[in-house]
Design a protein that fits this description.
The protein is α/β, with parallel strands linked by helices. Helices cover about 50% and strands about 10% of the residues. The protein contains 16 helices and nine strands. The strands form three sheets. The chain has a five-stranded parallel beta sheet with strand order 2-3-6-1-7. A two-stranded antiparallel ribbon has the order 4-5. Strands 8-9 form a two-stranded parallel sheet. Helix 1 (about 1-10) packs parallel to helix 2. The chain is globular, with a radius of gyration of 23 Å.
């Protein structure tokens, strides 16, 4: 983390594109804000865009703006995020979720500092610094043809890798103290102490949600604490070594349990002479996985495809093959309204 801080201060003074790599919850947005605030652009706007939260057509309009009548629902002209970030910084979070078409437009903005609004022919020039972030290895995405190589190298001028919290457990006591001060003040509480057993549990936990997860659990403990100490019993079940409560048997099953159940069901339903059993069971597991990922991504296909590690066309075909499309059309189109 000291290296992260050193790089942050050093690169802030330049106009170079920055690529932040790290798991979800490691603090990529905080580093992006710090780079902006420490830079000569610090007095300008800092505009964040979550590329994984919007469908392709909406994201294009969000980034570049649109003119009235360019598509259904475009009742007025709209300024895009790149234009709004003029003289400042635009932070493209989850850039690995963008489509090939959008990546071409992003490459042009990075190289030429110009673009057109959706439905317009007028070229707009901007002076905007780009900081991008990804929770996936973009080089692997390039090798698997899910991310343009030229865009990767254009973004990869300076890369800052944020390590997961499990690789820097010695930082946990200081982080806990920091969050205690914040949430004591916000909630008008006085919980300045941490029980030794609680701290040992916090340092032993794997932290799949990284610093953001730790932050949430400290806030929870401050709100629930009956006295002035964060004790072991105030921590969530999974931090104390158990399993988190889930609603419903299927949601409560981890991936290993889910796969075991589907395999058992497949074997139980198969006749003694049935052929191609492997393919049939794999199909059952894949269908269930796609169903759950689509639900967690609110039926946005581009986001689900990125999470599954497949391209959007492959996902669309699998949705069709497994009968997971809604009657009115693809799930994403219905989700987009």
């Amino acid at each position: 983390m000291e290296e992260v801080y050193r790089l942050t201060r050093k690169v802030a003074q330049s106009n170079a594109s920055i690529l932040l790599l790290g798991e979800t919850g490691t603090g990529k947005e905080l580093i992006a804000k710090a780079i902006h605030q420490l830079s000569p652009r610090g007095s300008g706007p800092f505009i964040r865009v979550n590329c994984g939260a919007l469908a392709e057509n909406l994201l294009e309009s969000e980034l570049f703006g649109h003119v009235r009548g360019s598509f259904t629902g475009a009742i007025d002209n709209r300024t895009g995020r790149f234009e709004a970030a003029h003289t400042g910084t635009v932070f493209l979070d989850e850039i690995n979720s963008t489509t090939a078409k959008l990546q071409v437009k992003l490459l042009r903005v990075l190289q030429e500092h110009e673009f057109e609004r959706v439905g317009d022919t007028q070229t707009i020039r901007v002076d905007t610094r780009v900081i991008a972030a990804s929770n996936r290895d973009l080089l692997e995405e390039v090798e698997d043809s899910r991310f343009r190589e030229d865009l990767f190298y254009r973004l990869n001028v300076i890369t800052i890798y944020l390590p997961p919290l499990r690789d820097r457990r010695e930082d946990i006591p200081e982080l806990v103290g920091h969050f205690l001060r914040i949430y004591n003040q916000q909630n008008n509480r006085h919980v300045p102490h941490v029980e030794r057993r609680a701290m040992e549990a916090l340092q032993a936990y794997a932290w799949p949600g990284n610093v953001r997860e730790l932050q949430n659990y400290v806030e929870r403990a401050v709100v629930l604490a009956p006295g002035d100490e964060l004790t072991w019993d105030l921590l969530p079940e999974q931090v104390r070594g158990g399993k988190p409560p889930r609603i419903g048997r299927r949601r409560g099953a981890d991936l290993e349990t889910l796969v075991s159940e589907l395999v058992e069901q497949g074997l139980a339903n198969a006749g003694p002479q049935e052929d191609n059993l492997h393919a049939k069971i794999v199909d059952r597991v894949e269908r269930e996985l796609i169903t759950q990922v689509m639900a967690s991504c609110e039926s946005v296909q581009i986001k689900a495809a990125a999470r599954l590690g497949i391209n959007r066309n492959t996902l669309h075909k699998k949705l069709h093959d497994y009968g997971l499309e809604k009657p009115g059309g693809p799930l994403e189109e219905n989700a987009g309204g």
